[in-house]
Write a structure and sequence with these properties.
Strand order of the largest sheet: 1-5-6-10-9-8-7
Distance between the termini: 70 Å
Oligomer: single chain
Strand content: 15-25%
Helix content: 25-40%
Number of strands: 10
Number of domains: 2
Shape: rod-shaped
CATH superfamily of the largest domain: Bira Bifunctional Protein, Domain 2
CATH topology of the largest domain: BirA Bifunctional Protein, domain 2
Bound molecules: 5'-O-[N-(L-tyrosyl)sulfamoyl]adenosine
Radius of gyration: 39 Å
Order of helices and strands: HHHHHEEHHEEHEEHEEEHEHH
Structural class: alpha+beta
Length: 337
């Protein structure tokens, strides 16, 4: 500053300097500020240098004010520099440090249940089954009654569930979280005439104690085929081929008689797991009463159906020892797939 220093110019300089310093966000800005105000050609240095042009009284008064300001600006400078160091923002906020090593971007992935369900659906699709999506909230009528499981049937106890509205006054009965995907059988058959060949994946819920092979929420993939002349051999052939595609030709498979009110005869299928059998599905020939319930003629049509548990399939395929990992939300498990 080369003009004659005045008290006003010192007051103005102080306000500008402190304002600008407060806005200096990093070390480089603080250094530019220092040069602008206190460097060899700085604005305050200019005032101090020009004190000699003043008369003695003014020089004393303005000189004292200028020196006071110099002390204040030096303290403010030290303080601001320390603040910046403490906050670690020696870089502008949006600066990119190109010297940092690269980090892998975390990519999301499909849940293991979704992956195995897709694999299972692919196998059935290739065998001619069409995929149909179902509903998780189901009417009592489809989950139980249409499947030959009336209100007083003991099979209901084995599939105790979470009711949305149990007392609902309707001929469809209450509303519940479905216990099995089998409700899709009557839903599909009511809508279309044979031939039928569908698979329907989705979530099921049961009010039951959990252990290594039982969860209270799990998936199933339902399968249904109805046509003239379908036999138990078609059921067996379809399920053996499914097991071969998923587990390979060498894995041991066991078929056993089982009971489900909506099939006759009924079976279940297990897969060998280190000398132990783990059940993956229930199946059977569609009960004539179920066919009649949807208006099909059981003298003309026969059918087979099955319900597979994908989490159990994935456990057997990948050696997962506890089904509870699937819904534990633990990334150490989920990211392995
Ligand atoms: C039977 C005959 C048919 O014509 C059609 C479908 C069925 C299956 C029947 N709806 C059913 O749900 N049978 S099941 O209770 O034995 O379950 C079938 C499969 O679902 C089981 O083999 C298992 O793989 C899976 N599952 C059942 N409860 C489970 C479970 N998976 C995990 N946790 C549970 N609590």
């Amino acid at each position: 500053m080369s003009s004659t220093p005045t008290e006003e110019s010192i007051v103005t300089l102080k306000a500008e300097a402190l304002d600008q310093l407060a806005n200096a966000a990093d070390e480089a800005s603080v250094e530019s500020w220092r040069v602008e105000y206190m460097g060899r050609r700085g604005r305050l240095t200019g005032i101090l240098r020009n004190l000699g042009s003043l008369d003695p009284d003014q020089r004393r008064a303005i000189g004292a004010a200028a020196n006071r300001l110099k002390g204040e600006l030096e303290s403010a400078l030290d303080e601001r520099a320390a603040e910046i160091k403490r906050s670690g923002s020696s870089q502008p906020k949006d600066a990119i440090d190109v010297t940092l090593p690269g980090r892998r971007t975390r990519r999301g992935g499909l849940h293991p249940s979704t992956q195995i369900i897709r694999e299972m659906l692919d196998a059935f699709n290739e065998m001619g089954f069409q995929t149909v999506e179902g509903n998780e909230v189901e009417l009592e009528r489809y989950n139980f009654d249409m499947l030959n499981i009336p209100a007083d049937h003991p099979a209901r106890d084995m599939q105790d569930t979470i009711w949305i509205d149990r007392e609902r006054a309707s001929e469809d009965g209450g509303v519940l979280l479905r216990t099995q995907t089998s409700g899709m059988q009557p839903r599909i058959m009511e809508k279309q005439d044979p031939p039928v060949r569908i698979v329907s994946p989705g979530k099921c819920f049961r009010f039951e104690a959990t252990d290594a092979t039982h969860e209270w929420q799990f998936h199933q993939v339902e399968g249904l085929a109805v046509d003239e002349g379908l036999s138990f051999a078609d059921l067996k052939g379809t399920l053996y081929e499914f097991a071969r595609r998923i587990f390979g030709a060498d894995r041991k498979v066991r078929f056993r008689c089982d009971f489900f009110p909506f099939v006759e005869p009924g079976v279940d299928m297990s897969i060998d797991w280190n000398g132990r059998w783990v059940e993956i599905l229930g199946a059977g020939m569609v009960h004539p009463r179920v066919l009649r319930n949807v208006g099909y003629d059981p003298e003309k049509y026969t059918g087979f159906a099955f319900g597979v548990g994908p989490e159990r399939v994935a456990m057997l395929k990948y050696g997962i020892e506890d089904i509870r990992h699937f819904f534990g939300n633990d990334l150490r498990f989920l990211t392995q797939f």
